[in-house]
Write the structure tokens for this entry.
Amino acid sequence: MRKRILSFMVAVLIGLTCVSVVVPDVALTVEAHSGRTDARGGHKDNKNASGLGSYHYHCGGHPAHLHPNGVCPYATGGVQAAQPAAQQSFDSVIFNAAFYAMVNPDIAQVIGTDPAALYQHFVTSGMAEGRQGAATFNVQVYIANNPDLVALLRNNLPAYYNHYLTQGQFEGRKAY
């Protein structure tokens, strides 16, 4: 529950320069940039606050993301794609490195147990394959329990992960 509250608070505070929020027994400080981007729609992130490296994009108002092979993952007719919307660490309601390695031994055998490598696989391949990244989210259960999303998101599996991360968990939608 505490992780969900923190995830929600981080999402709400994105775009603010520096804010301290106190939740009972928890202090959270969030730092973000001023919103300035270069001609390519991206900017340097020297502190790697996004966890995406020293440079990332915010195309079309979407959350911080990378452009694998030079292509924006959101350039699919407005439907969110590859990058999860909010990421302050590798662990979230849709991804847990230890869980991902445990339920995907084929991946762990090739990649190992490094959380960053497992997360990178999850983002670039695992979501599109419908792999379960955390005990708290199963994309097949989410699709089955939310037929209203099927007309909107169709077979774009990464979009279901993003929807749950940014909206579904806060709406109380069943995902496991």
